[in-house]
Amino acid sequence: MKRPIYLDNGMTTRPSSLAVSRMLPYLSEKWGSPSAPHQFGQQLYPALEESYRALYALVGAKRQDSFVFTSSGAEAINHVIATGYHDITCSTGKNQFLTSKVDEAPAILAIGRLEQLGCVGKMVAVDSYGRVDIQALKESITPRAALLSLSWANGLTGVIQPIADIAALCRDRGIALHLDATHVLGRLFFSWEEVGAQYITFNGDQLHATKGTGGLFIKEGVKSSSFILGGIEQGGRRAGPLDVPALVALGVAAQQLVEARELMCTEVARLRNKLEEGIVAGYPEACVLFCEAERLPCRTAIAFPGMVSEALLWLLSRRGVYGCIGGGSYQQISLVLSHAAVASEQVQSAISFCLSRETSEEEIDEAIEIIVGAAKKLRKLSVSFIPGGNHVA
Amino acid sequence: MKRPIYLDNGMTTRPSSLAVSRMLPYLSEKWGSPSAPHQFGQQLYPALEESYRALYALVGAKRQDSFVFTSSGAEAINHVIATGYHDITCSTGKNQFLTSKVDEAPAILAIGRLEQLGCVGKMVAVDSYGRVDIQALKESITPRAALLSLSWANGLTGVIQPIADIAALCRDRGIALHLDATHVLGRLFFSWEEVGAQYITFNGDQLHATKGTGGLFIKEGVKSSSFILGGIEQGGRRAGPLDVPALVALGVAAQQLVEARELMCTEVARLRNKLEEGIVAGYPEACVLFCEAERLPCRTAIAFPGMVSEALLWLLSRRGVYGCIGGGSYQQISLVLSHAAVASEQVQSAISFCLSRETSEEEIDEAIEIIVGAAKKLRKLSVSFIPGGNHVA
Questions:
Q1: Residues A197, A275: one domain?
Q2: Alpha helices (H) along B43-151
Q3: Which of A237, A279, B26, B205 is the most buried (most CB within 10 A)?
Q4: A18 near B CB under 8 A
C-alpha cells in the first residue's frame, strides 16, 4: 500500500526524529535514576535542565513557576482537578467545578468524580461556534465556584476559546482557571503572563513528542499538591521514577514547536485553506464549519451532507487518507456540533482533518482528490439507498 | 573512570537491550494510536497482544483478570488506594486502610490523603525482621477495614513478607489485599492463584524495562474504577494515550524475567552470598542483617558499626561501587531498621546492595575488595575523630 496521507494529527503525531534520536542514549547508556546520589544519576542533570528550559520557553513560564512532568495530558488534567479538591475545596469550602459541554473526557469525568465527594459539577453551554458562552458562564458561576477547566481550543474543529474574556471573568470572581493548551502549543503565539491562567497542561504525543509525555505548569504562588503521591521526585509533586528519556524527547519537541510556529501559522494554514477550498470546489455540498471563527491554523472540520461520517471515514481510510471523528479520550465531533446547534445533517456527516508541519502540498493535492472522489461515491450510494427512493442498480 | 560496579538494582535497573531494541520501531515507524480506526492504529495490536501475554504469564494471571498499564508502580499503587475509596468505602462504608510501618512512600502517603476524606489510616508494626507482625495486624484490623496494601518484600533488606498468613487473615476478615510485587517479580516462584491478593502492582524500571512503565493486575470480579479518568483507553480503566513503545519494552522485560528466574534464584543468590561472606571475612565487624529470614536472592543489607552509612556510601561511590541507603519513593534503610528494633549502631551504618542477573563474579570479587577497603579506611577515620578520643594525625 502507498504511504497514507495522515491528516489525523489531532489524535497523535509522528514523534520528531530528532526527539527520538536524542532520547536514545537515555534508554541505553544513561539509564540511571536522577534521585540516586552517584554518578549514574548525577550525569543526567544537564539534559534535564535543557529540557526544562525548552518547556518553560514554550509557554513563556517564569523560573518561579512550577512544572510537573506527567505521563500524559489526561494525567495532568486529572492532577489539576483532583488536587483542586484537596487544595481549594478542603481549605475554602468552594466546591463548584466548571467545564464546558464540549470539553474533553478527562476534565468532564474528573469533575464527575468530585461530585462523589460532595462537589458540584457544571458543564457550561457553548455558542454557535462551540465556544464557551460568556453569558452562560457568568450565570453558571456560583459564589462557591472553585475552578474552571477548559480546552483552550477545540481539538476537532480548531475553534479557539475567548480566553481573554474568560480569564478576566475568573479573575473577577476569584476562580482558578486551568487551560489544556495541547492544541494551541506551537500553533498560537501567546504569553502565559497575559493569559492569566493558574494552571496550563498539555499532552506530548500530540506535539511530536513520544507517547508517555505530558505536563502541568503551575503559576508561582498557586498551591497544587501531588496527584501521584509517594516521593521526593519532582520536588514532591509527582512520585514515580522520572522518565528521563521521555522528558528529553519532550524537551526537543518543545524547542521544535517554537521554531516551527511561524511555519505553522503561515504555510500550514495556507495548506489547510487549500484543502478546504479544494474540497468545496470539487464537492460543492461540502461545508467548512466555523471558518468565520478564530481557529487553529492546522485544523478543519468539514460536513458532507447526505452521508454519515463513519462511512466516509472508513472509505477514506481504505483509500489512504486518515481523518478523525473523535472518540477515545477526546470528544466526538457529532457531540461538539450538536452542542453548537449545527444542523443535524452536518452533525452526522462531519469529519475533522488536522495537518502537521510535516504535511506537504503534494499530500494536500492528493487528499483533495481522494476526499472529493470518496464523497461523490458515497453520495451516489446514499441517494440509491434512500428508502422509498428511486433505486439505482 | 573505570566502569562502576552497579549494586543499586533496587533503585533502578539497566533497561534490557532486547527490550529497547524491540521498542524502537514503535518510536519511529509504528507511532500510531491504537484507538485510531485506521491502519496506523490497527497495526499495533499484534505487538500489544504479545506484551499482554508475557505480563500475564509473569504473575500467573488468568485471561479473566484485568491488567492496567501504568506509568510507574507509584501510579499503580495510588490507583489501587485512591479508587479503593470510591469502589469500597463509598459503597460499603468500610473506611480503614492499612499498610505497614516500613512500607514505601506511595502507599503511606496515598492512605494519608484518604484521611482527608474521613478514612482512617493504620500503619501496622513489624517484627524484628521488618515483616508485618501478624499479631499486631490482627489487633489493628477493625470491622470497618477496607484494604491492606503491602510491599511483598522489602526493597532494601530483601526480607519477604509472610504473605500466606497475611492473605488468609485478609480473607477471614473480608479485607481486600494489595501487594506491590515489584521486588519479587522474577525473583520468586509464585502463582497469583495461590496468593489470593485482589490487586498486584509493580514498577517496570526496577525490572529491566524502561522508565515510564508499571502495571496493575486486578482479580476477576474485583471492582476497580479508573484513577486517571477520561477515555476508553485500556477498557476505560486508564485514560491517556497508550504508551505502546514502553508497553512493548515491558512485555519483553517480563518474558526475560521469567526466563532468568532460575538463574536469579541460584547463581545470583550465590554471588550475593559470596559478597556477604567476603565482606564479613575482610571486615569482621560487618553484620549481614536478617540473613536468617526468608530473603530475596539478589539483595542484602549490611551494617558497618562504627561509621555512618552516608559516609560509606559516598566513599564507595567515589571508588566505583554503587550501593543504596533508600530515600526517594522508597523507604530509608535506617527507618526500616529502626522499626525492626535493630541496634542503633547498625541502623546508622547499614547499606543495601542489590545485584541483578547481569552482575558478574568479577564485579563481586572487586566489590568485596573495595567495600572492605572503604570500611577499614572510614573506621580508622572514625576512631581518630571520636570526640575526646585519641586523635591520630
A1: no
A2: 45-59, 73-84, 90-92, 105-115, 134-140
A3: B205
A4: no
